[in-house]
C-alpha cells in the first residue's frame, strides 16, 4: 500500500472516530442504547399495546413519561398520592393519544404505605390482566447538610425511595416470574453512582436502589425475558426542588437558593425522554448516563462541594 493510501485510510478512520464521538456527545443515552435504537428497537415498535405501570405519574418525569407512552399506544396505569393530579394527567393523555378511557387506569398509591402494595398490584392485574413494565419513578430528593438534618428525615427518605420501591417491585415481580417476562425500570439518578453535597440521604437511597437492582438482576438469570433496568439521569426540570426533604420533616424548601442554580442548568423535561423510552424499549441492562448535563451541572458540584453550604439560606 502506498503512503498516499495509508494516509487516506488514517484520515477516514480519524473522521469516523470524530463523527462517533460527536454523535455520542449529542446523544441522550449511552452507546448501548444508541446501538439498540440503531438496530430498530424503538419505543413505538416495542411498547405499543404493552401495559406500563408508572409510579410518581402526577408530576415531573412520571407525568411526561405518561404522555410519551400514551402517544405511542402503551396502556397505562398511573399512580401517585394525588388522585386529582393523576386525573389531570389522564385527561391530557386521552387528548393527545388514541387511547380509550379504559386503557388508562388511575390508581392512588402511597409508596410508603407498604401494606397497600399487594392490593394495588392486584387492581392493575384485575384491570389489564397483566403488567409488562413497572416504572419505579416516584420519589423525593433532599437539600440539607448532614450535620443539620434530623435522623428521621433519613429514615423517611429510605422508606420512600428505597423500601417503597422494592416493596412494590416484590409484588409485581411475582407476577412477572409467573409469566416469565417483564421489565422493571427504576428511575435512579447520577446520585445513585456519585456523591453530592446537600443530598447525603438522597444519594444513599439511590445507591441502595442501584445495589439492590444490580443484585436482583443476578438472581434472575433463569428468567432471561425479565429485564432490570436502572436509569441514571442528571438534573431534569420538574417539581423535584419544591418537593425536597430538608433538615426537618415538616420544613419545606422556600428559603433555598440552589433551586435557581439547578433550574438554570437543567434541560427541559421533554428532552429527557429519548433516554427513558429508548432504554425501556431496548430493555438494556445497566446504566444510562445523561452525559451532556452530567458534565454541565453535577460535575462542578462534585468538584466544588464547599460551595454547597453557601447556597443554603441562613
Ligand atoms: N428531576 C431531577 O433532576 C431528577 C434527576 C434524577 C433522578 N430523578 C428521580 O426522578 C423521579 C421523579 O422525580 P421528578 O423529578 O419527576 O420529581 P417530582 O416532579 O417532584 O415528582 C415526584 C413524583 O413522586 C410522587 N411521590 C412523592 N412521594 C410519593 C409517595 N409517598 N408515594 C407515591 N408517590 C410519591 C409525586 O406524586 P404525589 O406527590 O402525588 O404522591 C410525584 O408524582 C424521582 O425518583 C427522582 O429521584 C429526578
Automatic annotation (TrEMBL):
Molecular function GO terms recorded: oxidoreductase activity
UniProt-listed PROSITE patterns: ADH_SHORT
Protein family according to the UniProt entry: Belongs to the short-chain dehydrogenases/reductases (SDR) family.
Identification of the protein by name: Dehydrogenase/reductase 7
InterPro entries recorded: NAD(P)-bd_dom_sf (IPR036291), Sc_DH/Rdtase_CS (IPR020904), SDR_fam (IPR002347), SDR_family_member_7 (IPR053011)
Matches recorded under CDD domains: 11beta-HSD1_like_SDR_c
Keyword Oxidoreductase among UniProt keywords: yes
Pfam families: adh_short
Superkingdom, natural source: Eukaryota
Keywords from the UniProt entry: Oxidoreductase
Keyword Oxidoreductase annotated: yes
